[in-house]
Amino acid sequence: MTIQKLLIANRGEIALRIHRACHELGIKTVAVHSTADADAMHVRLADEAVCIGPPPAKDSYLNVANIISAAEITHADAVHPGYGFLSENAQFAEIVESHNLIWVGPKPEHIRIMGDKIEAKNTAAKLGLPLVPGSPGPLHSVDEAKLIAREIGYPVLVKAASGGGGRGMKVVPSEDQLESLMGQASSEANAAFGDPTVYMEKYLGDPRHIEFQVFGDGNGKAIHLGERDCSIQRRHQKVIEEAPSPVISADQRAEMGALVAQAMAEMGYRGAGTIEFLYEDGKFYFIEMNTRLQVEHPVTELISDIDLVAEQIRVAQGDGLSVTQSQVQLHGHAIECRINAEDPQTFAPSPGLVKNYVAPGGMHVRVDSGLYAGYKVPPYYDSMIGKLIVYGIDRESCIRRLKRALEEFVVEGMKTTVPLHQRIIATDAFKTGDYTIKWLERWLDESP
Ligand code: ADP
């Protein structure tokens, strides 16, 4: 079935990104929004808009009944969830499908499996992906945990099975602290996710975060589009992402890519997915799979020339993948900076009225943002106000172009992280690509 009208169940830059792909494909769009987002760019551009509730996300962007009603009254025939909010909610996917709407996302059963990190690890192991050494399943008692920790060696990491955003995660340096930290991780997990289940992993000292973009047609065909390096992180949140990774060779990419694509083919995975690994001493360790589009998907688009949202829509309406693995030609280099409305030193949120806005432009410079002069950034949601994504024929020219583009970026009326990005990309560590997931925090501590 060909999608005629698609409801975008999200907000901000990703809602605009989805709208753009739809209009290029001749698909009409329906924006749903909270009262706080009535003036948002994607709401202005969409063919139709429906207000689905007050500012708190639980009453609007997470309000399943209102979103489904909006689809029904506008006669939309598909729903794209974007990232965050309901994008990895298997029950929502099922509800969408049971209303005879096309769900632009993976099969609900795969969302469910990968949403439970223990089940995800077991599935990954069965599919032949390398894991971080750890407990074979949930931890049932402190005594059991002690035995496993002795075997894998301290420090260990206790993680929430339903975790996300780095919550419910505790590093345990030695046995005497295991009981109390395990208790803390479990109660934090219960408070945040309503599930106290925790498991254990070896704590890797200084890894990189490297993830593979995969795509499946749902019928046993799957491809990979290379990796992204997302090691520039603060508090487990990605700040800068790049593709390809500065430390992965073409052989490693081909080998790991084939492994993840094969795993997705065996699963019968449908749509876009990301397989996240930690990478240390030349080895990959699976940590989780995200069954949705990622914030950092544009860096992959720039080096593959594939529109990932258009590809999601193709697959969702049953047209299959647009390319085979051998047709995928990765080239050049791309870097993304997440621009947040935050103080670049203290990271305090800085929402408010945009007094002036000038986005950078020129060759190979892309800005995904719903910002415009006169727009008021609401305080209720995530502080990311846009993404700057730059392409170059190689990493060095990409960094030079990024520096030039950041110089042009003007947002008046609030603090942004543009100056932080300017400082990061000027460091030797960034220029040489010699950084790990610990680097940014260490550098911030040392260079106030
Ligand atoms: P979440 O879903 O909460 O984001 P992840 O499992 O994706 O949790 O881990 C988030 C981040 O935590 C990783 O990008 C990495 O920085 C760190 N991390 C996770 N597992 C380990 C580990 N075993 N050793 C060291 N760091 C880890």
Automatic annotation (TrEMBL):
Protein name: Biotin carboxylase
Lineage: Bacteria, Pseudomonadati, Pseudomonadota, Alphaproteobacteria, Sphingomonadales
Reaction(s) catalysed (UniProt annotation): N(6)-biotinyl-L-lysyl-[protein] + hydrogencarbonate + ATP = N(6)-carboxybiotinyl-L-lysyl-[protein] + ADP + phosphate + H(+)
Parts of the chain that traverse the membrane: none
SUPFAM superfamilies registered for this protein in UniProt: Glutathione synthetase ATP-binding domain-like (SSF56059), PreATP-grasp domain (SSF52440), Rudiment single hybrid motif (SSF51246)
InterPro entries: ACC_Biotin_Carboxylase, Acetyl_CoA_COase_biotin_COase, ATP-grasp, ATP_grasp_subdomain_1, BC-like_N, Biotin_carboxylation_dom, Biotin_COase_C, CPAse_ATP-bd
Organism annotation: Sphingomonas brevis
Molecular function terms from GO: biotin carboxylase activity
Role: This protein is a component of the acetyl coenzyme A carboxylase complex; first, biotin carboxylase catalyzes the carboxylation of the carrier protein and then the transcarboxylase transfers the carboxyl group to form malonyl-CoA.
